[in-house]
Specification:
The complex is a heterodimer of chains A (about 375) and B (about 375). With about 375 residues, chain A is of the alpha/beta class. Helix content of chain A is about 65%, strand content about 10%. In chain B, helix 10 runs antiparallel to helix 11 (about 290-305) and helix 10 (about 260-285) packs parallel to helix 14. Chain B is elongated. The chains are: A alpha/beta (about 375), B alpha/beta (about 375).
Amino acid sequence: MRIIRELIIKEFLQIRRDKRMLPIIFTLPILQIIILGYAATLDIKNIGLLICDLDKSYMSREFVSQFVTSGHFTLWGDVENPKQIDTHLDRSEVTLAIIIPRDFSKNILLGRQADIALLADGADANTANISLSYAVQIISRYSKNILIKNSIGPSILTPTISAEPRVWFNPDLRSANFMVPGVIALVLLIITMTLTSVAIVREKEIGTLEQLLVTPIKPSQLIIGKITPYVVIGFIDTALVLSIAVTWFDIPIKGSVILLFGLSALFILTTLGLGILISTISRTQQQAMMTAQFFVFFPFIFLSGFTFPIDNMPWIIQQVTYLIPLRYFLEIIRGLVLKGAGLEILWIQSLALFLFGVVILSVSIFRFKKILK
Amino acid sequence: MSLSFNILPIVQKEFRQIRRDVRGLLLLLLMPAFLLIMVGYALNFDVKHISLGICNEDKSQASTRFIESFKHSEYFNISKYIDNRRDIDELLEEGKILAAIIIPNDFSDKIYSGREGVVQIIIDGANANTAATALGHIKSAVQNYSTKILTHELTKQGIIFTIPVNPQARLWYNPELKSSRFLIPGLFGMILMLVAVVSTSLSIVREKEQGTMEQIMVSPLKSHEIIIGKTIPYLLISLIATTFVLIMSAVMFDVKIEGSIFLFYLATILFLLGALGQGLLISTFAKTQSVAFIVSVLSSLLPTFLLSGFIFPVKNMPWLLQVITHIIPAKYYLVAVRSVMVKGVEITAFWEQLVFLLIFCSLILGISTARMHKDISR
């Protein structure tokens, strides 16, 4: 026990000696959560709209105003000639262009059909898709009103259906509510995994690991002494990020905070295991960092559902995501924070996380011991 | 003359050092292409097969037909019929359904009497983007059906009419609206940034840690010669890696260069020079590899991921962050690469981006030369 304590103190001293390390450990998570909370928004507002009004009538102007008052679109400008539209789309200045043909108002007044051309910049498929769906909804509403007002009169039966949406768990549809809880997971991953692996490989590189080996310290004591400081730092960072999420971003934690910390501990089993594993297969710090980047961060960020929904992925990739421990932790943390879910719903994910943690940690400790011998 | 004479040995030395670490070299060359394949399939915002729960309290012919209209669409999967609307809570909480449609018991009465039937939609908003897109699809489906019953009713009453406005949508550049065509060129920036910044910054800090940097410093080499000598090998390696990535994206994802290949490489070289310069700059003030690494990640990977418009549109960010994005080189690179790859437009549409990249890389290479100079004279 005393040996472990001494090792922990040694590790903390080493962390403190690197003057740039300490601010990184604590400012990195804060910076991450603030940037992610603000930048990671997929909310589509103020869609740039370009108008080519060839009709120039009272009716066409009224039609355009429907778009502006909807709140989704911002009028970027207008052009005289449809040919000028291409340049603005090429330069990504607008997302949607609307051409109102010369006979627009005439056709409508005569009870004929008027065509409206919508040109969307499909390069950003997500924005284009949502913009078009807004535009088509605005046009159909406008069209229906004209139909009822001009062509048929009020005395006739006009059955319609309207949808009344209610959004649960995140009524304002804020992206931050979804992204910020994810950052907690990311910070834990980066801090605990990278720092552990680098801490071990550094001693390997400098040769001090061999010095430790000739002392009567047992490998298990060495491992515990190495990882404990980073577990502590990981928990402090979690608390830090969590308090910013609540106070700064107004994200209510609907579930139990104690359960959140408990399940974070399960996740830390995995991240520490990965950290040790990386340190056993890397000779230099550069290799350790590259391995962590390429084999852990990249797949974890993209295949865990952190930004890209797993439901949208091809079947085979969906199967791969079951191998990414971060996936389970994200489901846990989002379910707990946003939906207030407890263990009765999250037990499957928790069990999976626990199994991953135990397996990865045992394998890595086994390998580490073998290398020490 | 003397310049190239001095630079060549450094380049050779750097290459020899890279070659000695075969695993590292392979990692630098092949990893980018591997990352693209692994991650490319996951980059997808297309919301399809929305799992719907239907709570039909009306149980009439009208409501059954309304539900039918959701069955034959690739956007929806009716995964659950719910008897009691109280059960919806639990289904949403467990994530069994994304949205529920409640058809209240006065639905058919209202429609048959020519009024407006209201259906309630309850949607899981936890993932705001998916929810907004899904809600858009559901609303469009409801509206389409609404128009259908209106026209049906009017025809039945013998009224002749036409739908007044007919929108015709045309999609430029990406007619099938595949989000991967937008995201994959963005991935290029991120992967290249990662390889370039991390590898250069570590290569110098390693020499510092091992003490060999001082040996280079005391040699008669000038600081700009060291900088150029360190940059060239990694630029070449990154360009080869880029070519692999390009081939992979064409083969696996059908994302090819629509415009000029020359412009693509021009933008890539400018971007890489800036990224390599950034790595060198980091190495001039980081004393240990772990600090160099974390600063590299902080200053390159995170901004490239978050502030470049790779995934999250810059236009939607708060004002202050939008200002910050102006100093992120990846932002300019992504606009240029997307213009060349997806839109296939001429240089006139994006020349400003190239100018910004040029300014950025000359600035950062200049600063790192100056800092290196200070290091030497010290």
